[in-house]
Design a protein that fits this description.
The structure holds two protein chains of two kinds.
Chain A lengths: L22 E6 L5 E11 L2 E9 L3 E8 L6 E8 L4 E8 L8 H11 L2 E6 L6 H18 L15
Parallel strand pairs in A: 4-7
Antiparallel strand pairs in A: 1-2, 2-3, 3-4, 5-6, 5-7
Chain B lengths: L19 E6 L6 E7 L9 E7 L5 H16 L6 E6 L5 H13 L4
Parallel strand pairs in B: 1-4
Antiparallel strand pairs in B: 2-3, 2-4
Helix pairs in contact in B: 1-2
Protein name (chain A): Proteasome assembly chaperone 4 isoform X1
Pfam families (chain A): PAC4
Keywords (chain A): Proteasome
Chain lengths: 158, 109
């Protein structure tokens, strides 16, 4: 699916066209903190998923688009002390539809970072959710944002 | 001041009502997230609903920045809602004015 990676340094970074190419751009700020934006698209079973992952220093923002470029529901998730729990809150979008909240929760478990997830997968589609989550997790692993098991508990204080 | 914004592009072959998402960050995280939209109405002058959906709710300048942007979006002929995240080190008037004008200059709506 990926036809190449673009890496560039910008002060203003603009999300790339969702035309099937994968692109990653890095924005570096003056004090050495980088921001990485990764966009890619996957076609699975006649459904097109668009992904955008923005890696900030202390947070990950991810967007999953299912056939459209709408923002969808927005969830905030964070590790919660003292029990290695994860809290998820729906911050935009209807309360009766929590498609995507479990994805947000699992991203926190895998990465240990605060997560903001935007997801427009239609409700009552567990297969679509599972497919999207799988692709997203693969990419997070590939980008090195996840923690390996050998690093101990994801939510430890180290 | 370093800043960056992330946007959505319309999928070209479909007519969709999309959102505009803008992210401004200095602090390593998204900061406060605001939502702004134009309200349906019959009067000539549109009204807007601006709210903080995550983060600091006691900073009026953040709301003012979102309000200014949504009005600008509306004046450009678009009814798209805005999701704006501001992760700024200070919330003074000058900073927010600078942010708003930088975003309007670099706009894609």
């Amino acid at each position: 699916m990926a036809s190449g990676e673009l890496k560039g340094h910008f002060d203003v970074a603009v999300a790339k066209d969702l035309s099937g190419k994968e692109s990653t751009s890095a924005v570096s700020t003056g004090d050495g903190d980088g921001i990485q934006i990764t966009c890619f698209t996957e076609d699975l079973n006649d459904v097109t998923f668009h992904f955008q992952i923005i890696r900030l220093e202390k947070q990950i923002y991810a967007w999953i688009g299912c056939n459209s470029a709408k923002l969808g529901h927005l969830y905030a998730a964070a590790p919660t002390r003292p029990n290695n729990a994860v809290s998820v809150a729906s911050i935009l979008g209807g309360a009766s539809d929590n498609t995507g909240s479990s994805i947000a929760r699992r991203i926190v478990l895998k990465t240990g970072l605060n997560v903001i997830l935007a997801c427009n997968i239609p409700k009552n589609s567990p297969m679509l959710e599972a497919d999207a989550e799988r692709k997203l997790m693969e990419k997070l692993k590939e980008l090195g944002y996840t923690r390996s098991r050998s690093q101990g508990s994801v939510l430890s204080n180290s | 001041m370093d800043h960056h914004s992330g946007r959505r592009f319309a999928v070209p072959h479909k007519k969709l009502s999309l959102d505009i998402k803008v992210m401004v960050t200095q602090i390593g995280s998204m900061g406060t997230i605001l939502h702004a939209k134009k309200e349906e109405g019959v009067s000539i002058h549109p009204t807007f609903a601006v709210s903080v959906i995550f983060g600091k709710r006691d900073e009026p300048m953040l709301m003012a920045c979102a309000r200014q942007l949504i009005e600008h979006i509306s004046n450009s002929g678009s009814s798209k809602p805005l999701v704006l995240s501001l992760g700024l080190k200070d919330h003074s008037l000058e900073t927010l004015k600078g942010v708003a004008s930088a975003l309007i200059e670099n706009r894609l709506w």
